Amino acid sequence: MSLSEIVKSQRDFYNSGNLLSVNKRIDFLKELRDKIKNSKGEILGAIKEDLGKHNYESFLTEYQVVIGELEYLINNLHKLITIKNTGTSLNILPGRGIVLKKPFGQVLVQSPWNYPFQLAIIPTIGAIAAGNTVILKTSRKVPQTNNIIKEITKVLPNEVLYFADDYSHNEILDERYDFYFFTGSRKVGGIIYKKAAENLAPVVLELGGKSPCIVDETAKIKDAVKKIAWGKFLNAGQTCVAPDYVFIHKKKREEFIDFFKKEINLNYNNRENLTKIITEEKVEQLSSLIKGRNDIYGGEFNIEDRAFMPTILTNASFDDEIMRDEIFGPILPIIEYENLSDIIEKVKTKPSPLALYIFSNKNENVKKIVNYLNFGGGCINDVIVHVSEIKLPFGGVGGSGLGNYHGKYSVDTFTHETGVVVSKSGLSNFLRYPPYTEKKFKIIKKVLG
């Protein structure tokens, strides 16, 4: 079948009401859950082959989060889809208001290579849980992971979920969809946004940006270093919410750098445990960012092996070349600061980041940063873990994207809240009908103000 025929078959399937049953949606989710559980070894092995990622990391950041999302939706979907009663008011008497959560129809999900399993599957299951059909398009940079995704998605009919790995980006976008969900670069996100606008369709864009990490003079430095190093070097820094750079207070700079060097030597110096950089070209690009610097700690790389060792820049400046764009690699610029207000103003000069991290034991500083800066999500005295909390929305703002998902927020995103007034046949409010007499006018002015 051609892609156009697949798209039509999904639209016909949706229009026939086959996904109106919440129980049927739950059955589909259970089928996916069971297949994924039975394929755990193959999933971890495929990611290892594509990215060189340690099974420990893949289990936590790819497999476990998907299973957690599935279990949550299976156990809570009836409650999440329940019709909401809004009560009545003088305007609609004797009727009452209700809110229905209605699916959009056909959803296009496009996912990237850096977390190739979970970033493909989590939005997909959210869309299906909400009652939509899905066309799924993944990155061709992770062929082994694509193979296992293809096998997993076969447990559902093509009319519900179709893995469109045989089609190009342009071929995919030639079709019309009712909702667009994209995770990836800002450049391609802009293309998706324009395409959605052409079809007057809603869109979620999960992009990225330079996510700052601020460590003030009250922070517990050893704890901050351990967490920041983990967040930065996880997946070799190829994480959209990784701390991109650190602002460290002048009083704590030397202590911070000393602990960071020790942490690298202790836990991040074994190349076998580190994820590979996605391409040789990316290794070359990362190496160019540090070429000629005299403040490098680490910095070893091997282009053929796609290896880049964890690196810190101990005397970085906000005006350095490396501060222009998202690094997306295991390089951490460390920038000294003295005045908190000054760095808040500097961060404001860049597009709103996908994440923001603050290490502080001073509430005044935390409130100031949170209130003055726009960001998609974040942590106080931690990094990245907000993404794994199913009860929190995850998404960007401004330059880092729009819309959010995860847990109930996925159901909210992939449904349209439809307001309906329910009245009883034979009953109505006589005041709204002609003739518009003076007596009736006095009544409505008295009642409605």
Descriptors:
alpha/beta; single chain; 6-stranded mixed beta sheet; 15 helices; Aldehyde Dehydrogenase, Chain A, domain 2; 2 domains; Aldehyde Dehydrogenase, Chain A, domain 1; Aldehyde dehydrogenase family protein; 7-stranded mixed beta sheet; 449 residues; globular
Largest sheet: 7 strands, mixed
> What is the gyration radius calculated from CA atoms?
25 Å
Shape: globular
Treating each run of at least 4 consecutive H or I residues as one helix, how many helices? Answer: 15
Highest CATH level, the class of the largest domain? Alpha Beta
CATH H-level superfamily title of the largest domain: Aldehyde Dehydrogenase, Chain A, domain 1
Distance between the termini: 62 Å
The total strand number stands at 20
Average pLDDT: 96
Q: Please, how many domains?
A: 2
Q: And the CATH topology of the largest domain? A: Aldehyde Dehydrogenase, Chain A, domain 1
Going by CATH, the architecture of the largest domain would be 3-Layer(aba) Sandwich
Strand order of the largest sheet: 10-13-14-9-8-15-16
Unreliable segments of 5+ consecutive residues: none
Indicate the percent of residues in helices: 40-55%
Classification by helices and strands: alpha/beta
Percent of sequence in beta strands: 15-25%
Protein name: Aldehyde dehydrogenase family protein
Organism: Miniphocaeibacter halophilus
Describe the model.
It comes from Miniphocaeibacter halophilus. This is Aldehyde dehydrogenase family protein. The chain has helices spanning 3-15, 22-38, 40-51, 55-81, 118-129, 143-153, 169-173, 186-198, 221-233, 253-267, 280-290, 340-348, 363-372, 408-413, 438-448; strands at residues 84-87, 96-103, 106-110, 133-137, 161-163, 179-183, 203-206, 212-215, 245-249, 296-297, 301-302, 307-308, 311-313, 331-337, 355-359, 377-380, 394-395, 401-402, 404-405, 415-422. The chain is of the alpha/beta class and 449 residues long. Strands 10-13-14-9-8-15-16 form a 7-stranded mixed sheet. The protein has a 6-stranded mixed sheet with strand order 5-4-3-6-7-18, sandwiched between helices. A 3-stranded antiparallel sheet has the order 1-2-20. It starts with a helix and ends with a helix. The model has no long low-confidence stretch (mean pLDDT 96).
